[in-house]
Amino acid sequence: MTKMARQIVSTATIPAIVREAFRVAQQERPGPVHLELPEDIAGEHAPDLPCIPPHPIELPAANPVALDRAAGLILGADRPLIMLGAAASRPRLTDALSDFIRRLRVPFFTTQMGKGAAAGGTNLYIGTAALSERDYVHQAVDRADLIVAIGHDTVEKPPFFMGPGGPTVIHIGYLPATVEEVFFPHAEVIGDVAITLARLADRLEGKLKNASALLPLREQILAHLADRATEGRFPLTPQRIVHDVRQVMPDDGIVCLDNGMYKIWFARNYRTHVANTLLLDNALATMGAGLPSAMMAAMLFPQRRVLAVCGDGGFMMNSQEMETAVRLGLNLVVLIIQDNAYGMIRWKQVADGFADWGLSFGNPDFVKYAESYGAKGTRIETADGLAPALEAAFKAGGVHLASVPVDYSENQRVLIEELGRLAKSEGAGNQS
Ligand SMILES: Cc1ncc(C[n+]2csc(CCOP(=O)(O)OP(=O)(O)O)c2C)c(N)n1
Q1: Quick one: angle between helices 343-351 and 261-269, nearest 10?
Q2: At 242, which helix (H) or strand (E)?
Q3: 1, 256, 280, 287: which to mutate for ligand 1, most atoms within 8 A of CB?
Q4: pTM
Q5: Is the distance from CB of 131 to CB of 100 less than 8 angstroms?
Q6: Is the minimum distance from the CB of 285 to ligand 1 under 6 angstroms?
Q7: 378: β partners
Q8: Mutation to probe ligand 1, out of 236, 342, 345, 412 (largest number of atoms < 8 A from CB)
Q9: Segment 42-56, tens digit of pLDDT
Q10: How many angstroms separate the CA atoms of 289 and 353, rounded?
Q11: Which of these, 181, 356, 379, 403, could form a disulfide with 366 (CB 3.0-4.6 Å)?
Q12: Helix (H) or strand (E) holding 350
């Protein structure tokens, strides 16, 4: 669960271990470390040892040979695409990514966890791969002859499958690519990604023959995001829920997703304008994580709107944290997408031709449940009720829970039937 776990066995080692723990936690890929302080050591008198202060760390810059090789491949491409993956989503990279995209004028798509890594407004965003194949954006991915994959981490579900005869893939990262059956880049540029991007852009700016070859597909891909987004159906379509959430979230508002079916809809349909404003996990994808991640976001950014979006299943795995949120006096709105079922598993069972089995469950009365923690609760009862309820909850402040019923028949209609038809007619999904 952590990048490092150490037990402190002597007081003399504390400064070095603490220093090392921070180094490991902060270096790519950043993550938690665990130090255990046993009671007997904690009771000892420590020698008067100074802390070991951290020093600035400059990451190594990529080898010029690798940069030249990658530049050569990109210059030779007829239909290039850029992909932003999980490790592209670092606050310190936002400017470098946005500059790179603007200077090359190559359209880009994102993985689920790469979403929002670059600042908005380039008009070169062509979609997010919420599925591994046959998503709308795969109309472009399947036509690309070269993909510059920036920061792809194979811990994510694949944003596309590589296979024989597919596009050339260049991996740009802090760390070498993990080669897998469906991801085996043809070239790599490893080092500080910001430096790599600036040096590549210096080599390529204004020289690409077909930088925007796939850009004409942008309009038709993004047009799908408006499908049923304002429909008056009740329970609400997932598209409408994403649409209404977008209405009430300011550009810098942070949406923190738990894990369930709605994650696919948010990953594809929610447009981000500011980096790191849609937080989701496409790796372990642990149910129950949405509420705690939103609580941390609310603690770090008390001035910004923070919304946790959870399925009823995922919320109930960690809902006791409502007490913590109330106790800490957070300003936080929790939106529960209610289908009284494990919707994502239902979708997978249908997609695989299995009978619907063992997926439905009952829920508490969410309004009363919220109130029992000292939070406020709202039940959405009309199609037009969601946006005003969220707006009122944010304005009121404090911890607020809103539950909204969802019509998940859209999962089958869009994600299985429509995308399946699209793939057949396009001859897409060429590799699996
Ligand atoms: C801790 C954990 N258990 C099981 C899973 C597998 N899983 C992924 S989504 C899902 C169903 C989620 O149901 P819910 O939270 O109600 O959201 P919905 O899919 O209905 O929108 C399950 C069981 C998981 N990701 N994490």
Answers
A1: 90
A2: helix 238-248
A3: 287
A4: 0.93
A5: no
A6: yes
A7: 402
A8: 342
A9: 999 988 888 888 888
A10: 30
A11: 403
A12: helix 343-351
